[in-house]
Specification:
Length: about 270
């Protein structure tokens, strides 16, 4: 699956950004719930391991996620992940995360994309599972880029996240017990390479236009739509962009305007 390679490339891009950091630097707090860089990497590492075990060892997968429901309800997921990883941090954490990501990508690259895999919630296809790992790496990576004052140079592999955003249009509303407004807005997005990507039926008064990476930022909730240059026309498009959520779990509000941004370097 190309998605497996895309996941690994996104992981390596983030790993390169944090490569110069000292162990102490990993204790910096990001703008995402005051998570440190350590906490971000532990989260990505834990769930990459979960995805790998869902393919290779279902019993070990069940053991890995045991007690996870209680941790999620208590809002102590980072503590659960830290305890499982025995406090792994800093450069040692980066190395372990990078190695395991490579193993995960290798396994997913060689399996049937339609194979059903166990997960914390409903099962999902292998393609959906590795796409979710790509999305989380990209989304959680943003708070690290922001904290370090680094501008991410996106590649066209973010199309996977665009597709995930499109596919979860209805989910955004049904997850909030709202009727799904039809039709879905027409998307006209410019890829990092300059290619134009379109989704949906052409509508003059119900559309979203702009940079694909900014659309991805909104559906992954790493930016408020007000902090992007997206052109949003029509009630359906406005409602979607104000509460878009491409990831599973209870409804989450987007960040308030101005709260998620690239930190200025001094």
């Amino acid at each position: 699956m190309q998605q497996a390679n895309d996941f690994l490339e996104e992981t390596r891009a983030l790993a390169d950004v944090i490569a110069p950091l000292s162990d102490e630097d990993y204790l910096q707090k990001t703008a995402f719930k005051a998570w440190t860089i350590d906490m971000v990497l532990r989260h990505l590492h834990f769930w990459n391991m979960a995805a790998l075990l869902s393919v290779t060892d279902e019993f070990a997968f069940d053991t890995l996620v045991m007690g996870l429901t209680d941790a999620l309800r208590a809002g102590s997921l980072p503590d659960h992940e830290k305890a499982y990883l025995d406090g792994l941090s800093g450069r040692a954490l980066r190395d372990a995360w990078l190695i395991k990501a490579g193993e995960t990508a290798d396994v997913f690259a060689g399996i049937d994309p339609s194979r059903r895999l166990k997960w914390v919630g409903p099962s999902m296809s292998a393609r959906s599972s590795i796409t979710a790992r790509l999305m989380e790496t990209w989304a959680h990576g943003q708070e690290v880029y922001d904290q370090l004052g680094s501008v991410r140079l996106n590649k066209d592999r973010i199309r996977n996240i665009v597709v995930l955003g499109v596919n979860t249009y209805g989910w955004t509303f049904s997850n909030r017990k709202q009727p799904v407004p039809e039709p879905m807005p027409y998307l006209v997005l410019t890829s990092p390479s300059g290619e134009i990507w379109t989704y949906g039926e052409d509508q003059a008064d119900n559309r979203i236009e702009g940079a694909a990476e900014e659309f991805c930022q909104v559906v992954t909730q790493v930016r408020n739509v007000a902090d992007t240059r997206l052109t949003v026309l029509g009630a359906n498009a406005t409602s979607w962009m104000e509460q878009a959520q491409c990831f599973a779990g209870p409804p989450q509000p987007p960040p308030a305007p101005g709260t998620r941004r690239i930190r200025e370097r001094f």
